[in-house]
Amino acid sequence: MKAFPEKLLYITCIQGEKGKHDYVATIDVDPSSPTFSQCTRSSPSRNNLVVAGLISDRIYVIDVAKNPRAPEIIKVIEPKEMHDLDLSAPHTLHCLADGNVMVSSMGNAKREAKGSFFLIDTKEWKVKGLWSEDSTNFGYDFWYQPRHNVMISSEWGSPSAFRTGFSLDHVSEGMYGQSLHVWDWKERKRIQTLDLGNEGLMPLEIRFLHEPTATTGFVGCALTANVFRFHRLEDGKWKADKVIDVPSWKVSNWALPSMPGIITDILISMDDRYLYFSNWVQGESGNRHQRHAPSSPSLRGQIYAWGGACLGGVTILEDNVKAP
Questions:
Q1: Does position 44 have pLDDT exceeding 60, yes or no?
Q2: pLDDT, tens digit, for every residue of 209-265?
Q3: Which parts of the chain are coiled coil (predicted)?
Q4: Which of 79, 115, 223, 239 sits CB 3.0–4.6 Å from 57 for a disulfide?
């Protein structure tokens, strides 16, 4: 793919310690710059970066045009605007062609499970209202293909569960999702739900192919470390099939006898040839070739950065996996 290389990257940085604020860092990635590979600023045509606060329920608008190396917050949409719609826990944001920003949310005002979507007016930077009156059991990510009048959304879990830290008890209590939802983009109505079953617990990031006429995409399921392919059938219905299954590692001196991959993000190359995904707990990044056979992608490469095995004392009991 031929494109101008980026010179600056804006990275969200999440603080794990109480009392410290999250921030957006500006990273210089221009090899000819004297500050190449350095963080040039952390901030308390596409002029603004819009950031959702998953826990705070705030939306931040950051000006990245006035001084790209020192972006600044120009607007904070306070939680009350979301809570007035009985929403909380914003996650994914997309800039729509009509000038609005569409945001997915995962909870109601009481932080109980509720998947919904709302719109932000980019002229006033205020919450306009719900995108649809329909809601789902859980919410998380979404992506749309206007040419096919379709949107697909995914599920994570209840804010009351993930805000307190992950617990397997919450999974057995049904506080995490396992479905994809198909929406009529123009009518803003849910038209189909695809239950992925126990093999598809916590379907997170949705990725359609970049080809605008494509009717297929992928979703990574975190807890079960699987990737599902979703696609439209000849009768107009949608179907989802498991195409990648990442095995757990047998381990000792860990919280569980086996260590799952926990797929947190997936990405499709701009030419739709490769599918990349990260196994957060195992600390591995996988590269799957899928251009000619999206229904059966094959492994082309792996990079190990290591995750849970670097905590100290964890022993991997697999002959084909080398410990860090």
A1: no
A2: 999 899 999 999 999 999 999 999 999 999 999 999 999 999 998 888 999 999 999
A3: none
A4: 79
Q: How far apart are the first and last CA of the chain?
A: 34
Q: Are 30 and 300 in contact (CB under 8 A)?
A: no
Spatial contact of 143 and 121, defined as CB atoms under 8 Å apart: no
Contacts of residue 3, Cβ cutoff 8 Å, sequence gap at least 6: 270
The backbone torsions φ and ψ at residue 57, rounded to the nearest 5 degrees and listed phi first, read 65, 20
**Among 121, 51, 122, CA closest to 90:** 51
Here the tokens at position 9 are 């990257």
Identify any residues that bridge with 219 across adjacent strands, giving them in sequence order: 206, 228
pTM of the complete model:
0.84
**Mean pLDDT over all residues of the chain?**
91
The model's pLDDT over 251-289, given as tens digits with 9 standing for 90+, comes to 998 888 999 999 999 999 999 999 999 998 988 887 776
With 0-12 CB in 10 A as exposed, 13-18 as middle and 19+ as buried, what is 203? buried
Give the rounded distance of the alpha carbon of 27 from its chain centre.
Answer: 21
Phi/psi of residue 161, each to 5°? -90, -55
Provide the pLDDT confidence category of residue 171 given band limits of 50, 70 and 90: very high
Task: For the sheet with 263-268, list strands across it.
Answer: 263-268, 274-279, 284-289, 298-304
Q: Are 200 and 228 in contact (CB under 8 A)?
A: yes
Query: The tokens of 290 are what?
Result: 């899928």
Q: Is residue 46 predicted with pLDDT exceeding 90?
A: no
Rounded Cα–Cα distance for residues 191 and 153 (Å): 12
